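[SOLVED] Need 3D model of a two-part complex

Original post:
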Amino acid sequence: MDDGRPIFLQIAARLEDDILAGTMPEESQVPSINEMAAFYRINPATALKGVQRLVDAGVLYKRRGIGMFVATGAQAQLLDERRRAFQEDFLRPVAAQARALGITPARLAELIEKEMEK
Amino acid sequence: MTTIIETTGLTKRYRGVTAVNDVSVALSGPGIHGLLGRNGAGKTTLMQLISGQEFATSGEVRVFGESPVENAGVLRRTCFIKESQVYPDGFKGKHVLKTGPWFFEHWNEELAQQLVADFRVPVNRVIKKMSRGQRSALGAVIGIASRAELTLLDEPYAGLDAVARRLFYDHLLADYTEHPRTILLSTHLIDEAAALLERVLVIDAGAIVIDEDADTLRGTATTLAGRATDVDAFASGREVLDRSRLGGLATVTVTGLTDADLAAAAAAGLELSPVSLQQLIVRRTGAPIEIEEAS
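Solution:
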């Protein structure tokens, strides 16, 4: 695991990334807690905590005795959440940097447009 | 959950030195926990008290609800791998392995053989002639294969190279997930072992200074960098663990920031970076923990 954030948050974020990217399609089974613990070399209790976060959010659901699955609608739900966080997480720092460098809003819009056409 | 270890006011004094000072901790149920601290902080003494190898000067220790001292019922369920284990003269690796099933009721011979092969322990060599790493590997084999309900591992990988340490983590985790039990691991390679730990106990000068869930602990501190005036303004009134200054720039490590605080700091133009468990513990214990280079 990479940064200083609590590991369970990193686990939850990675699962979200996989669901968003379609690597883990809806209604597919997600790896077991023990598999995740071995793969990431983390305490199983930590893996469980990360998964539980997504269960609480309705992104994953449990089938007793079988395992954990990606809920239908999970991808759309996560996309919605990420879009809402986009302004704060990405645009705000860009705007702050643009201001510091004297880049006008019009110029910034131009740059973004050019970047997105690539 | 059943209480595995419980100490109350546990104290061990040697002539003029208080090695363990008024320690009250409780560990219950299965889990992999870390006992962290600098050299000489009291990690080994605490483990010796827990495994009944030392008598407490005052206070009490209970393992599986009973005193561990001279208590076969408790010791049969406990495995203590010491950093500097002394074996009888002439003992070879295979002799030690042979004693495994005599002392540990859950000993798994197949696993022991697998581990010996993976760690490449020269079992036909006299232990005295083994390298430090080979002796550590032998200890790791016994610690894992014992499957003891309480396993105390004191610096289990002193002298092990990076490959062997990774093997150790993988085997420990794999066997733990299949056979959950209580494992207390002492180490000063904190960042390397951090992700394996559920709970972290930090001992400094004999006293427990941190007893916290590893994940909770990880999120508790943040380093802020920026213009000294901005940094100081933000840090005032908060618990500062560390502070440094370079000309007009400053960095501080502060605890207890909420999401709103973090957003405010970012908006004020401060650069935020997370603090690793190792950095956090180094700062909390006031002085650097010896950091062994990965060899």
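Edit: Chain B touches chain A at residues 31-32, 169-170, 173-174, 176-178, 195-198, 214-216, 218-219, 263, 266-267, 269, 273-277 (CB under 8 Å).
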